[in-house]
Amino acid sequence: MEWFDGSIAVAIEKCRNKQALFIVYVYNAGEKETQNDVQFNKVLEELDTDKFDVNFIAIRLKTGSEDAKHFANIYPTPVVPAFYAIGKAGTPLKIITAPSGITAERFTEEFQGTVDTFNAAIEGAKPKKILKTNRCAADDLEGVEMTLEEKQKRAMELLAKKKAEEAEKELQEAKKKEIERRKDGQAMMKAREEQKDREILEAMEQRKKEKAENEAQLKRLREQIRLDREERAKKPHVEAEAAPKAAPVVKPIPTDECRIQVKFPNGSTLIKQLASAQPLQVIVDAIKEDGRHSGSFYLVQMYPRTELNDYEKTLLDLGLTPSAVILLVPGLGRMGLLAQQAEEAANVEAAAQ
């Protein structure tokens, strides 16, 4: 016999759903096990339940267990082992015990009688089947004689009505789906708006936090500046440094010879070793002879910066000894411009006469 592993409550619920016979076998185990238990267990193990035309759920309860105690409160078990066959209404149909032993033949005979009683009760409780005959949709009006054309017309009307009902049903379902879709869209839009509002609030909180941090930083800087000013005010004033002395004027040193370096606008130089008694015109002639510069020019002494325009003076008189750097500047210079202006005035006067 196949035993159910679940609880009594689950077994009872399954019996109700399947209209099955409920079997409960109470037995001893361990130290309480008797020869009758061993014999009864053997009969149940070797029992071929397929030859009994009945649905059943069988459960085993060991004496002393909680389930066995609950079962004994409803169905007293003075003799153990005991085999209970319980019907649909919860009434025991048969209780098979073995106070003096049990045989397979005796158990089979008594259990078969229980099965017959149970099946008879089930069959009596079933409602009688009502046979229905299929009728044409066009013949639904009993007692009304209709021609073939009328029947066809009636069938077409019923078919059109059915199609209209199906179309209406589909339309209602489509409307329902559209309403649900709109609700989902509104819910999604609401969720997005709420998310946007949360982001705006978070951004405002972040800006507020940054502003507070900036104000705190500015306050700390101002406090530090104030402390620095107070600390400087406590220190003794440092006397102002004396004004720098004027750079000494370097006086030329009289020498027999002098070294003159002429710098051209392109960065090149012309170096001449001349006698200090020679006039400035010697340098002008040397520049023209060199040929690196064509056109008008004038000379400027670098230190101190002075335009050299008196070509008759000696190099010693001009302070170019023992060495000097002279710049060659393209153009006429101050004296050249004056000479040009005087010449133009003379030409104008001569033309007027």
TrEMBL record:
GO terms for biological process: ERAD pathway. Residues 253-328 form the UBX domain. Residues 175-194 are annotated as: Disordered. InterPro entries: Ubiquitin-like_domsf (IPR029071), UBX_dom (IPR001012). It comes from the Eukaryota. Pfam families: UBX, UBX7_N. One of its GO terms (cellular component) is endoplasmic reticulum. This is UBX domain-containing protein 4. It comes from Steinernema carpocapsae. The lineage of its organism: Eukaryota, Metazoa, Ecdysozoa, Nematoda, Chromadorea.
